[in-house]
Amino acid sequence: MSVITYRQALRDTLRAEMHRDENVFLLGEEIGVFEGSYKITEGLLKEFGERRVRDTPIAEEGFVGAAVGAAMLGLRPVVELMTINFSLIAIDQIINHAAKIYGMFGGQTSVPMVIRTPGGGGQQLGATHSQNIELFYSFIPGLKVLAPSTPAEAASMLRAAIRDDDPVLFLENLGLYNTKGEVPDGDDTVAEIGRAAVTREGTDITLIGYSRMAMVASQVAEKLAEEGISVEVVDLRSLRPLDRETIVESVRKTGCAVVAEDDWLTYGIGAEIAASIQEGAFDWLDAPVRRVAMAEVPMPYAKPLETAALPSPESLITAVHETLRAVGRRVG
Amino acid sequence: MKGKNTTMTEIHMPRLSDTMEEGVISSWQKQVGDKVSPGDVLVEIETDKAVMEYEAYEEGFLVKQSVKEGDTVPIGAVIGVLGASPDAAPEESGGAAPAPAEPAEAPAAEAAEAAEPAEAPAPAEPATAEAGAPRTRTSPLARRLAKEYGLDIDQIEGSGPKGRVVRADIEAAAKQRETRPAAAQPAPAAQPAFDDGRDSEEVAINNVRKVIARRLVQSKQEVPHFYLRRTIDAEALKAFRVQVNEQLASTGGKVSVNDLIVKAVATVLRRHPAVNSSWVDDKLLRHNRINVGIAVAVDTGLVVPVLHDTDKTPLSEIARRSRELAGKARDGKLKPQEMSGGTFSVSNLGMLGVDSFAAVINPPEAAILAVGAMRQVPVVRDGEIVARHTIALELSVDHRAIDGAVGAEFLKDLAEVLEEPMRIIL
Fold first, then answer.
1. FRET partner for B232 with CA separation of 20 to 30 A, picked from A16, B50, B52, B361?
2. Which residues form the Transketolase-like pyrimidine-binding domain (chain A) (predicted)?
């Protein structure tokens, strides 16, 4: 067991998968000579050569399209989009091609490709480079969308993504790259796509998050435990397919829930979670489902404003306290 | 994942008559586990008027009898549960808890609740426009638990936002009930002291008896009765009946003296609309339809099935219908609509040898005709004493609606029609 960063877990997994399967290759902007804007692909060009680690022009539509074609012909491309914001330039290739080809052409060919890309704000990158638009892809049948929150899950889920025969959008987060966690040495676990995880068991309230907010939820649960509040944390891990069963089961146990999301509240991922909860656990709900999300503004550049716009651990704690007070607990 | 797919259907105490407020489970006709098809009689329910069969509207299996035979529950209370399979376990348990018949949910409040401000991650409870009757705010979980514990959620004070009843409140109430079981349950009614030397015992009475008692008291207290007596010569009537029955013999029909009287009453009422009326709440109603009720003695008391549009119904049909209704009355199978809408009643105790009697008016009707036995008596006719068949009639009249002379005119006309019975059917 080693304690490594989320970044290291991704890099190790990419390397191992490239060794395991020679059809796996990487392409993206600045991933080779520059070793990646976020250094995920550090050392890989040297190790695997230009044929399997391909620097591309700044032309997302072109190289995502090239990856779709390569996948159709049997290769397993792993595309790096520098941030999820740039996926907008390639969105037609992703939604209208990668997601549709298998179904539209009667299953003649699948599209086994992975698009790795970080979302997230908090880095003072401005409104156009700080978005959390994974919802766009989570909305599309034909795509799978994974959003791990820990180094161990980043590894097992990237393995699953690369080995899966469908196009997977693999959501990373700028705020997670440097987080550390235990990863088993020589681990070859392949995560089951479409399963959420109860990362902490509790009885008073369910806290639901994914990606960075799953991590924040765990920290908040830790803090609330000191107050004697028993929080159950559900890490969605997979936004499509969505594991409603695990969510509902948890809420049936606790009777109330708070959803934490880095994206915007209106029409956001949390709205889908809240809807799923009332469908599956209506008679178990003791309080309305609360959502904690980003402020409904384009991300401000100024640091204090950016911090204020993002959902914080404090706002999560407030929502938990208020929900528990609503069900008769004396808290906060 | 959706919630557990419950294909349970609750059966609620139906409203079987306008005046019904509660019903007694008289007897279950289906037992737990029995298959039920639409139209099957599930249960017999005793209302304030009669014992009625209550049929299933849906197919399934009876999985629960929530109310025991003999127990009384209000309209809308769950009395049983139908399930998709015989061994389906019902989730609810609150049998006797008064489940109001689906109150109209305050839609305005619901909608406002749903439209929580999207922008604020910590939405304040929106001020909901409470429309109509205040509705107990509850969490879905609290509602479910209240049902499981058999608690009336409306009686529980909510500690949540704006008084919302939450799980903690239900659990506290359940705990309180557990620790004070004596207080929650009414003390058994003390045995009445009959130790007064009469050697009495209390006889169980049913709803029908209670209603009869209440209505008769009401009639005698509120309705100023007066009585008009008249004896008719029944020779012609007797002969006419024989003649009619000879005509009907081939059809199997048979007409009684009472049928003739009922038809005659209807015919004469048409000419005396003032008698076909009601005094209700300081208003005098004159009824355009003539619906004559017939008092029928049954084991449980007295019921008055009604022959609607008696004046327009042929005599033979009146006879057939009277027998049918009397049979249903004795079997306790009369439907509420067969006992409502009467405008005048006829009570006949002649078959029991009563010479004459004064009947109590059946409100809101304004008059009732009491019919005595047909007897052969010596009468003076053209200066001679002869033996004649006679019947004594006595009309009880509500003086608020009908004056003496008006009642007397009616009775005179009725007597003349009965003495020239061909006019009954003309």
1. B361
2. 4-179
Q: Return d(Cα A155, Cα A15) in angstroms, integer.
A: 11
Domains and CATH numbers, chain B: 9-96+137-182 (2.40.50.100), 208-425 (3.30.559.10)
Comparing alpha-carbon positions, the chain A residue that sits nearest to B124 is A322
Query: What are phi and psi for residue A136, nearest 5 degrees?
Result: -55, -40
Interface contact A327-B166, CB threshold 8 A? yes
* pLDDT level of residue B119 (50, 70, 90 thresholds): very low
As for how many domains chain A has, the answer is: 2
pLDDT at B121: 46
**Contact status, residue A306 vs residue A273, Cβ threshold 8 Å:** no
One domain, residues A231 and A117: no
State how far the Cα of B270 lies from the Cα of B265, in Å rounded to an integer. 9
- Chain A residue closest to B122 (CA)? A319
Catalytic residue numbers of B, as ranges = 399
Q: DSSP string covering B187-245, please?
A: PPPPPP--TTTS---PPP--HHHHHHHHHHHHHHHHS-EEEEEEEEE-HHHHHHHHHHH
Q: Is B144 on the interface with A (CB under 8 A)?
A: yes
Q: What percent of chain B clears pLDDT 70, i.e. is strictly above it?
A: 83
Q: What share of chain B is helix, strand, coil (3-state, %, to 5)?
A: 35, 25, 45
Q: Structural domain of residue A283, as residue ranges? A: 197-326
pTM over 0.80: no
Which residue from B186, B183, B144, B193 is spatially nearest to B167, judged by alpha carbons?
B144
A166 in the same domain as A221: no
ipTM value: 0.78
Contact residues on chain B for A327, CB-CB shorter than 8 A: 139, 160, 166-168
Chain A residues in contact with B121 (beta carbon < 8 A): 265, 290-293, 311, 315, 319
Q: Which residue from A minimizes the CA distance to B159?
A: A328
Instruction: Please give the pLDDT value at position A192.
Output: 96
Q: Is B301 a residue whose pLDDT tops 90? A: no
Which chain A residues are within 8 Å of B123, Cβ to Cβ? 290
Highest mean pLDDT pick, A194-208, B1-15, B179-193:
A194-208
Of the ranges A17-31, A189-203, B170-184, B326-340, which one carries the lowest mean pLDDT score?
Answer: B170-184
Report the alpha-carbon distance of residue B371 to residue B404 in Å, rounded: 19
Which residues of chain A lie closer than 8 angstroms to B143, CB-CB? Answer: 283
Size of interface A-B (CB pairs under 8 A): 73
CATH of the domain at A138: 3.40.50.970
Distance from CA of B122 to the nearest CA of A (A): 6
Cα–Cα distance measured from residue A314 to residue A116, given in angstroms and rounded to the nearest whole number: 30
Residue B167 has pLDDT above 80, yes or no: yes
Asked if A255's CB is within 8 angstroms of B121's CB, the reply is no
Q: Would you call A60 a catalytic residue per the annotation?
A: yes
DSSP assignment letter at A86: G
B2 at interface of A, judged by CB pairs closer than 8 A: yes
3-state SS, residue B367:
strand
Nearest to B163 by CA among B148, B142, B177, B184: B142
Q: Cβ distance B426 to B419 under 8 Å?
A: no
Both A166 and A280 in one domain: the answer is no
Q: How far apart are CA A283 and CA B142, in angstroms?
A: 8
Question: Nearest CA to CA, how far is B2 from chain A (Å)?
Answer: 4
Tally the C-alpha atoms within 13 A of residue B330's C-alpha that lie toward its C-beta: 6
Residues A55 and A84 grouped into a single domain: yes
- What is the reported pLDDT for B70? 85
Report the alpha-carbon distance of residue A96 to residue A101 in Å, rounded.
8
Model confidence over A73-127: pLDDT tens digits?
999 999 999 999 999 999 999 999 999 999 999 999 999 999 999 998 888 999 9
